[in-house]
Write a structure and sequence with these properties.
The structure holds two protein chains of two kinds. Chain A is mostly helical. Chain A has helices spanning 2-36, 63-91. By secondary structure, chain B is an all-alpha fold. The chains are: A mainly alpha, B mainly alpha.
Chain lengths: 101, 269
């Protein structure tokens, strides 16, 4: 009786395992088929450069005025770095994938 | 009782079933995935007509890629149009040349996209896709060309501001000297700053003059000119950073005069 019970339990486990494997295999096949379909490769759009705001210098040449001017210049120097990224993106641009495959 | 024989006996059919299941699902799932994507108004289901389904998929794929590339370029060109108008160093005539060229390309690509959208056979579609490929040179030149001019223009505007700050600093140095402070080191820094700002101006103007005459017809040969202009602007930026560092040193010294109180008497020659 116990042997029969064990045998029945074992068979049920086997059936469950088979079903699970079939499901996983089907899922893997589905995912790989989706990936095989063409995906349009779109190169990233160019980053627009930061528009530096035109600000007037402070009046006067006190320490605080000169410090404020210096902050303004630093901000604009950093904005130039963004511009240089845009230049590089333009120079390194690659045409999108226009093949049939 | 579970014996080795029992295990083998019960597992073997399972292994056979698993193997068949894997083979079956890997074979049928891709076909099922393709089928469920749907087809673009070309008639009955592709099941049973694999050649027709493949052709339709090719058309869809090619059309999608073509449209995506056009969208990408049009978006970038529209941003470029806005940027061109901000370049102060360009004359109105020069701006007009660039804007009409860029707008013309936008119009051409937009019309081409509409045509591609209406194409129904692969041969016509391929011809239209080739037009996208051939027009790439226009995009490939305009993008870096305009970005270089915009950058050089901003750089020159910054040089103007830094020259104004130099005037302020010089006034402070002169006042400090009149008060008896030793200003030799600061004067040396200001000389270096003036030199750096002048070089930055030269580099930026040269960059504009280098890229201004470039045309899409010269692509890809004119890439070297674009790279050269890029290097000039890198040099100009380094000049500005060095000039700002000089100003920072001058400000620090001027502040120290204020903190120290009595001036350091300049040595009598």
């Amino acid at each position: 009786m116990n042997a029969r019970k064990r045998k029945a339990g074992f068979s049920a486990l086997l059936i469950i395992a088979i079903v699970a494997v079939i499901a996983v295999a089907a899922g893997v096949g589905w995912i790989s088929a989706k990936k095989m379909k063409s995906t349009t490769l779109v190169p990233p759009a160019l980053t627009p450069s930061v528009t530096s705001t035109i600000t007037n210098l402070t009046t006067g040449n006190s320490d605080s005025a000169l410090d404020k001017d210096s902050e303004d210049i630093s901000t604009k120097l950093n904005a130039l770095n963004h511009d240089s990224v845009s230049i590089d993106q333009g120079l390194n641009d690659q045409q999108g994938n226009l093949s049939e495959q | 009782m579970i014996t080795k024989k029992t295990i083998v006996k019960s597992v073997t059919p399972g292994i056979v079933v698993i193997t068949l299941a894997i083979a079956f699902s890997l074979g049928i799932a891709p076909a099922f995935a393709r089928e469920s994507e749907g087809e673009r108004g070309t008639g009955p289901s592709a099941i049973g007509r694999p050649g027709e389904a493949r052709m339709t998929n090719n058309i869809d794929r090619l059309r999608s890629r073509g449209e995506a590339e056009i969208d990408r370029r049009v978006t970038a060109l529209n941003k470029l149009l806005t940027k061109v108008t901000t370049v102060k160093r360009l004359t109105d005539a020069q701006k007009s040349t660039f804007t009409s060229g860029i707008q013309g390309q936008i119009t051409t690509l937009t019309n081409l996209k509409a045509k591609i959208d209406a194409d129904t056979d692969i041969a016509t579609l391929r011809t239209d896709i080739q037009l996208i490929v051939k027009s790439y040179r226009i995009f490939a030149v305009y993008m870096p060309q305009v970005e270089i001019m915009v950058h050089a223009d901003r750089l020159l505007a910054l040089v103007d501001q830094m020259n104004q700050i130099s005037t302020k600093l010089q006034a402070r140095i002169d006042a400090a000297k009149a008060a008896g402070h030793d200003t030799a080191s600061m004067q040396s820094l200001m000389t270096d700053r003036t030199s750096k700002l002048a070089d930055a101006t030269t580099q930026a103007n040269n960059a504009i003059n280098t890229v201004m005459p470039l045309t899409p017809d010269g692509y890809p040969g004119n890439r070297s000119a674009l790279m050269s202009a890029r290097s000039m602007l890198q040099t100009a930026r380094r000049d500005l950073v060095a000039a700002e560092k000089d100003a920072s040193e001058v400000r620090r010294t001027l502040k120290s005069f204020g903190k120290s109180g009595s001036p350091t008497t300049a040595p009598t020659p």
